[in-house]
Specification:
Layout lengths: L12 H7 L37 H25 L3 H35 L6
The structure holds zinc ion.
Zinc ion binds next to loops.
């Protein structure tokens, strides 16, 4: 119990590291080897990343956040300017895709960091 919080730094540090795509334990190693593919282990501290899996969690949160942002902005635009449908499609589809793609990797890193943080530290192999 006494070792549970030692060496972890600030309480938010693991989550901020995850948002940046860095290992939640050391803060240095890259979590990803591709856009969303996790590295098998942290290249710096050796944390086994095959034991963590974010599943569909990041996609769910991205859908919620991006849906709220884009749909709310499109609705306000529609009410104020009343543009033709093709303008809505030409503007909001690319923005929606960009917001989703922009949020997906940080959200996956955040969820991986939360799993790593809440499972506790594992000794290096
Ligand atoms: Zn690491």
């Amino acid at each position: 119990m006494s070792e549970a919080g030692e060496g972890r730094g600030a309480p938010l540090a693991p989550f901020l590291r995850g948002l940046r795509g860095r290992c939640a334990r050391c803060g240095e190693g890259a979590l990803f080897v591709g856009f969303l593919k996790l590295a098998p282990r942290c290249p710096v501290c050796g944390y086994d990343l095959t034991t963590v899996d974010s599943g569909d969690g990041p996609a769910v949160f991205v859908i919620l956040f991006a849906g709220f942002i884009v749909v709310f902005a499109a609705l306000i635009t529609e009410l104020i300017y009343d543009p033709p449908v093709w303008v809505d499609l030409a503007v909001w589809l690319p923005i929606g895709a960009a917001v989703c793609l922009g949020l997906l990797r940080p959200m996956k890193g955040l969820m991986i960091a939360a799993q790593m943080r809440n499972r506790g530290e594992r000794p290096p192999p």
